[in-house]
């Protein structure tokens, strides 16, 4: 298994990784094949984190943010029914907690404030983007941990990009409203519209106070890179899930 990482997030005991398509790490796969959970746990250990502290969420394409505490360690890791309910962003500041979410075209957002030991993970499809899950996560980090937005660094993982993300006029209008200052949020193409959820999330992060220079973008399109990452769109609705994981090991 290969891992994608951001140099900007490697500090303060914070560890992270985005896995590839060599293993389906979806909740369905973990239920059907216990070895899938073993592969995920091996990935967690490889980047220096603790599988016993893994916490997963029931992702619903919204903007709810949940603070994870030591008592939550293990939720959703082996039993998806025990995952944090109806949540698309997890935040934490305690060691030996590992946050995990799963993707196949939606955008992984990995957050850290290394000087304060704070970290977070968010899942943004077009609905979560329209609901501004990125801004909600920044606000929650300030509210729960008193982290100023200008101390947060963010990594934008692989997702479907404007080159491949054809959308309808209604979705295009919602993306434009979500980031009216972003000229490529949604643009007309010869087949309708294409959306750029990474660009919208970047604009929302900046609007929330995150420095533009503190945002790293993988610039990888999952649909173009279906040999490396799962893509719901390229797979015509049939796709596994790759994982984004982040935590502290001190």
Query: Main β-sheet: number of strands, strand sense, barrel status?
Result: 6 strands, mixed
Q: Report, as a whole number of angstroms, the end-to-end distance.
A: 25 Å
Name the helicity range: 10-25%
CATH domain class: Alpha Beta
Structure description:
With 250 residues, the chain is of the alpha+beta class. The protein has one domain: 4-Layer Sandwich (CNF1/YfiH-like putative cysteine hydrolases), CATH 3.60.140.10. Helix content is 23%, strand content 25%. The chain contains six helices and 14 strands. A six-stranded mixed β-sheet has the order 4-5-8-7-9-13. The longest helix is centred in the N-terminal third of the chain and has 13 residues, at 34-46. The radius of gyration is 17 Å and the shape is globular. The protein starts with a strand and ends with a strand.
Describe this structure in a few short sentences.
The chain is of the alpha+beta class.
Topology readout:
Elements lengths: L2 E2 L9 E6 L7 H6 L1 H13 L7 E3 L8 E3 L21 E4 L5 E6 L3 E7 L4 E7 L1 H5 L2 H13 L7 E4 L9 E2 L1 H10 L7 E4 L2 E4 L1 H11 L7 E3 L24 E7 L2
Parallel strand pairs: 3-6, 4-5, 9-13
Antiparallel strand pairs: 1-2, 2-14, 5-8, 6-14, 7-8, 7-9, 10-12, 11-12
Helix pairs in contact: 4-6
């Amino acid at each position: 298994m290969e891992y994608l990482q951001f140099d900007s997030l490697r500090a303060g005991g914070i560890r992270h990784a985005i896995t590839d398509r060599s293993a389906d790490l979806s909740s369905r796969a973990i239920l059907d094949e216990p070895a899938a959970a073993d592969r995920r746990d091996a990935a967690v250990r490889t980047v220096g984190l603790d599988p016993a502290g893994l916490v997963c969420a029931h992702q619903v394409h919204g903007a709810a943010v949940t603070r994870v505490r030591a008592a939550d360690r293990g939720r959703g890791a082996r039993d998806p029914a025990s995952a944090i309910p109806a949540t698309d962003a997890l935040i934490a500041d305690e060691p030996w907690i590992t946050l995990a979410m799963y993707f196949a075209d939606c955008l992984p957002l990995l957050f850290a404030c290394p000087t304060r030991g704070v970290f977070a993970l968010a899942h943004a499809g077009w609905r979560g983007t329209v609901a501004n899950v990125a801004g909600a996560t920044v606000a929650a980090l300030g509210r729960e941990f008193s982290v100023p937005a200008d101390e947060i660094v963010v990594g934008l993982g692989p997702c479907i990009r404007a080159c491949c993300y054809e959308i309808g006029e209604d979705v295009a209008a919602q993306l434009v409203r979500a980031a009216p200052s972003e000229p490529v949020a949604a643009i007309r193409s010869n087949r309708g519209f294409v959306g750029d959820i990474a660009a919208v999330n970047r604009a929302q992060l900046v609007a929330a106070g995150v420095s533009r220079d503190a945002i790293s973008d993988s610039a990888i399109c999952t649909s173009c890179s279906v040999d490396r990452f799962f893509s719901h769109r390229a797979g015509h609705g049939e796709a596994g899930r790759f994982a984004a994981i982040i935590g502290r090991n001190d």
